[in-house]
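Field log, afternoon session.

UNIT: design team B
ACTIVITY: writing a sequence onto a fixed backbone
BACKBONE:
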């Protein structure tokens, strides 16, 4: 799955990469680490000429509850194999697709009772895109329309199956050539479109740091290995 992301690109880089306008109101600051369970604002690419800002954790338009967390904690990710079946997502299939920019994401490997954190990024692209979907919801407390999104996941490739080694899932990373098809709704999924292991780079990071309040710092991306991680390192 994908429950933590980074986006260290400044707005001008996003504008150039996606050929979009970034509104001045969107903060221009790097995010080194963000947990989806904090429902952060994220800069999102849609078919609109402007970059949008949305909250991570999709709240479907039909949700009438008072507490958005009742649904948004469960919709950080969406399995591509069941998008047309899940009530939270099926109305968005082939419609409200988006790109979720990333400069690297985080995942955990399970080794018995021990969990080892990894940072994973694309080898050839400093800034890359996850497939996403979004919806607009009326917040009953503020009476304002809010946009929220989910990150689409797929079956893990060989590398990610070793890292995310329990459920063996990974975010659906789109090559630049596939981004347009995803946004337009013309995307046809099969495993040949999954990014291959040799296109990704992964290393262990500081477990104490990622579990602390200081995780959103440049140091979180640095390779780190304590004794417990050294014993189970994938790449020895």
């Amino acid at each position: 799955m994908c429950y933590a992301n980074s986006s260290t690109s400044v707005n001008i880089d996003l504008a150039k990469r996606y050929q979009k306008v970034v509104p001045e109101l969107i903060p221009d600051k790097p995010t080194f680490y963000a947990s989806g369970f904090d429902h952060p604002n994220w800069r999102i690419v849609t078919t609109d000429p402007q970059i949008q800002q949305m909250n991570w954790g999709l709240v479907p338009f039909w949700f009438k509850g008072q507490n958005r967390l009742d649904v948004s904690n469960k919709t950080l990710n969406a399995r591509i194999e069941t998008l047309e079946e899940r009530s939270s997502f099926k109305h968005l299939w082939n419609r409200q697709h988006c790109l979720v920019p990333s400069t690297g994401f985080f995942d955990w490997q399970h080794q018995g009772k021990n969990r080892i954190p990894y940072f994973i990024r694309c080898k050839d692209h400093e800034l890359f895109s996850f497939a996403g979907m979004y919806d607009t919801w009326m917040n009953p407390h503020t009476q304002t329309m809010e946009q929220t999104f989910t990150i689409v996941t797929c079956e893990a490739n060989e590398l990610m199956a070793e890292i995310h080694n329990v459920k063996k899932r990974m975010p659906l990373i789109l090559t630049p050539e596939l981004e347009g098809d995803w946004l337009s709704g013309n995307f046809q999924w099969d495993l040949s479109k999954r990014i291959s292991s040799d296109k990704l780079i992964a290393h262990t990071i500081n477990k104490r740091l990622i579990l602390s309040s200081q995780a959103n710092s440049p140091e979180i991306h640095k390779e780190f290995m304590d004794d417990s991680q050294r014993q189970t390192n994938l790449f020895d």
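LOG NOTE: The chain has a mean pLDDT of 94.
NEXT ACTIVITY: expression trials, pending approval
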